[in-house]
Design brief:
By secondary structure, this protein is an alpha+beta fold. The chain is about 50% helix and about 10% strand. The protein has 4 helices and 4 strands, in the order E-H-E-E-E-H-H-H. It has a 4-stranded mixed β-sheet with strand order 1-3-4-2, with helices on one face. The longest helix is centred in the first third of the chain and has 25 residues. It is globular and about 40 Å long. About 5% of the residues have low confidence.
Amino acid sequence: MIGFRLKLKSNRKRKPSVRTDAQKELMKRAKSVIPPRVEYYAGIMGLSYEKVYIRLQKTRWGSCSSKKNLSFNALLALMPTEVLDSVIVHELAHLKYMNHQKLFWNLVYRYFPKEKYAACRKYLNSEGMKIMKEMGVR
């Protein structure tokens, strides 16, 4: 899978997770906010996908599988719409190019200009980490 990754170390041991009320509300909100944005951008980009998954993840903002399934971190529902959209466009571009080569980036920048994309990426790396900590995901 290809996707946005955070710069975190993971011990890879899975502990049973017990969701807080805030996390449950976040999942509910994310499921109502993210899929319509994915559908919108897929439509204007002329791309199709199979399924959209919403998860509370520690190391990724989004991913795209070779089976055309998209996965997004529920925490994106707490981000400004522009930041959410940058991740969606990135993952949708992987439906056409499963790499980060020039053609991939050309497609991303066609729908999300480079400067705006870079600002969103910077926001994710700084503010996104704070939000993860606040929501007890780290």
